[in-house]
TrEMBL record, chains A, B:
Its EC number is 6.1.1.21. GO terms for biological process: histidyl-tRNA aminoacylation. This is Histidine--tRNA ligase. Belongs to the class-II aminoacyl-tRNA synthetase family. The keyword Hydrolase does not apply. InterPro entries: aa-tRNA-synth_II, aa-tRNA-synth_II/BPL/LPL, Anticodon-bd, Anticodon-bd_dom_sf, His-tRNA-ligase, HisRS-like_core, HisRS/HisZ, HisRS_anticodon. L-histidine binds at D103, L104, T105, R133, Q147, D151, R301, Y305, Y306. Pfam families: HGTP_anticodon, tRNA-synt_His. One of its GO terms (cellular component) is cytoplasm. Homodimer.
């Protein structure tokens, strides 16, 4: 066995018990909402055939896919001249036939196509699993991270879009966030604008430039639009829509007149209006905090991928990028030969949400709950006396430990402190004689003598 | 984008919603017990540095580790003569510096060493994560599968061993299993036997042969022992211990006389007796089903790894290999330069437990619970009427869906059937007029008209 000082692979993380409890709190809270809205969990393998992933994420994405080396004598089948040329690109497909999942969307598409005879449409699924990307690691960017996706495939109803808004609202509220904005846009509105300006072929350039309004301001966007092939005249036509202001209704009103001649643009507006109508209908039920939804025409999410509504969520309590996003994409499964299936979905940025909750101190006490009571261990007699009491606690559903040796009390107390165990039980000769044991509240320092049954009553919640 | 017929990577699996609910049921049930016994969850990355894993699993194990191809121009740094030789083994470390987790034990050891200043001992952790092995796939053997491990490091108390017995007992009972045997042995007893026979250097050969008693019978074991270097005389001394019979107490009694001259052997017996005493003490509490514990001298688990108690669990209800196992290993972290830490742990074979529960039909109804009620969608008026009702259900914690379009009722009903949704609500013009909606019980076919509030009362549990 080699004797090396161990380290983590670059860009990866361990999660401690404290971190795991908090991460599970986030995932459990979100999953519970997914289920209430009729979504069911699936999982796909970490490894996919390389051919399943290649070509789905663009050239840059392909480079970031982690490939798995074939097992055994992987060079045996490689042509000798490929080896002497030392051409990494050319050789890759000969020595690697599997790769790690890069996102959850392509495996989901593969899943739908492979299981099309077993699933009934619309198929509502969520998936919370790690993905791997060979990105250069940096603060907040890891090579292994969890994605948390919820999608429905096979339904073009805009009720789905409306429900995703409520899923965001409910999940993030349940996590304790109180001030966040759900931005909505529609790809067809962006297409309509490009059409009206007369440069439909430049739609990608336009959205990329407009997407930067927050970062580089109007001047920056204009500069970029000029660089990307728009004229001053185009830009004067674009300006009113880039700087659109007012309530959602006012914005939609303005857009309707700007896009009056664009079928596509008007269809996008109608979709947004229908989504809003569904949200209003759903919110007629009581007890729901109204979501803050903003039509944001600069929202393009850089992607040439969405075809209808686009979403993004931003917290207003902490400076942080988006904590979620998604949208409608037609033809999800076309890449695997199953045409005509439309999908819509959103995802939650779990790592960022973690950082937000941490910064706002929003993790509840219960998200630190491990062992509730530690029974100290003075000597063998006390240990024997403690055994059935220990088990009594557990039978009552209380997480309990007996310190496993009769170490110094100070050591046992600092063990309880380190593990954030809120109660310690002291059993000495007094306690064994009178049958009442001492319960110490580690927060207040208060001690009192009680029976095991009384302590169980006290600690059960 | 390529247009290929998609397939799964060899030896990997998708998990459908129905399977996920059952898998989660198993993991949640087991984790809940871990927590009650004071264990906390950690997670480690899927990828480790190759050097962290290499040399820990023997030569055969090393071959089964999935290596990850370095990103970018991975051949650039390889010596040209290595390439022309086409020697796969020699080139591997030049083109791969990371690998996929092979088990949870080595990453746990790395975790303990790297975080030794942050954790307080004894450190009680559980970990439920996938591992990857380049095994030849076959029935029941996958290249990606979950391990479910619970270990404590830094405590030599035999209370830990006793608690693991109760953890098995409680977790498997909670899963509905009623007839299973927890086998226990101690490596020191095996060492003592080898010592008494006078062949301590053949201990591995002896345990490997004895371990096969169940499979090849006494004759087979004797044949193998002869082949492995034991004499007829050795075997006549071995026979009584191999064929040991009676209660645990009787077996321990016989062993004590056989091993009277072996310090090590007697120490092993004393450890088993202490574990039994702890179990008896813990079981003085009420409400606990007594575990079926059997001292099994043939239990060796083939491994040269354990140093103290060894466990294995076998269900008696279904023909199946062991559904769990573990033991005490000294010097867990020595491989990473931290000496003198002892550990003990067990694991649950989740895939096998799944198969057992499936075969015995032990998955509870609740382990299929997805959407509880589907609201059918007749037309636009009914849809609008349904929206706040839909949300009322969800606000009451009831998983509910509205069929997202006004498809034919038959189609909507078969959607409910396929998703095993137990209730469907019908809203037609009658219902909208009188404010009472029709609830159809999909199991009984029974229909009745109720208010939304009455339905909520009925479906809440």
């Amino acid at each position: 066995m080699s004797n090396i000082k161990p380290s983590l692979a670059k860009g990866t993380r361990d999660f401690s018990p404290q971190e795991m409890v908090k991460r599970n709190y986030i995932f459990d809270t979100i999953k519970k909402v997914f289920k209430k809205y009729g979504y069911a969990e699936i999982q796909t393998p970490s490894m996919e055939n390389l051919a399943t992933l290649t070509g789905k994420y663009g050239d840059e994405g392909d480079k970031l896919i982690f490939k798995i080396l074939n097992s055994g004598d992987f060079l045996a089948k490689v042509k000798p001249d490929l080896l002497t040329q030392a051409n990494s690109n050319a050789i890759t497909s000969s020595i690697s036939e599997k790769a790690l999942r890069y996102d959850l969307t392509v495996p989901f598409a593969r899943y739908v196509v492979m299981h099309q005879n077993d699933i009934s449409l619309p198929f509502k699924r969520f998936q919370v699993q790690p993905v791997w990307r060979a990105d250069r690691p940096q603060k907040g960017r890891y090579r292994e991270f969890y994605q948390c996706d919820v999608d429905v495939v096979g339904s073009d109803s805009l009720l789905n879009e409306a429900e995703f808004i409520l899923i965001y609202q409910e999940a993030l509220s349940n996590l304790g966030l109180s001030d966040f904005t759900i931005k909505i846009n529609n790809r067809k509105i962006l297409s309509g604008i490009a059409e009206v300006v007369g440069k439909p072929e430049l739609i990608v350039d336009m959205t990329v430039a407009i997407d930067k309004l927050d970062k580089i301001g109007l001047e920056g966007v204009i500069k970029e639009l000029l660089e990307r092939g728009f004229t001053e005249a185009d830009i004067s036509r674009l300006k009113p829509v880039i700087l659109l202001d007012g309530t959602n209704e006012q914005k939609l009103g303005s857009l309707k007149s700007v896009l009056a001649v664009s079928q596509t643009g008007l269809a996008g507006i109608a979709e947004i209006e229908k989504v809003f109508a569904y949200v209003t209908g759903l919110l007629k039920a009581d007890q729901v905090v109204k979501p803050d939804i903003t039509l944001d025409i600069t929202l393009a999410r850089g992607l040439n991928y969405y075809t209808g509504c686009i979403f993004e969520v931003k917290t207003n309590e902490v400076a942080m990028g988006s904590i979620g996003g998604g949208g409608r994409y037609d033809d999800l499964t076309g890449m695997f030969g199953l045409k005509g299936l439309t999908g819509v979905g959103i995802s939650f940025g779990a790592d960022r949400i973690y950082d937000v909750l941490q910064e706002l101190n929003l993790f509840p006490e219960s998200a630190a709950a491990g062992t509730k009571v530690l029974i100290s261990n003075f000597d063998e007699a006390a240990e024997i006396y403690a055994l059935p009491i220990l088990q009594q606690f557990r039978n009552a559903g209380i997480a309990a430990e007996l310190y496993p040796s009769s170490a110094k009390l100070k050591k046992q107390m600092s063990y309880a402190d380190d593990k954030h165990i809120p109660y310690v039980i002291l059993i000495g000769s007094d306690e064994m004689q009178n049958g009442r044991i001492t319960l110490k509240d580690m927060n207040s320092g208060q001690q009192r003598q009680l029976s095991a049954e009384e302590i169980i009553e006290l600690l059960k919640d």
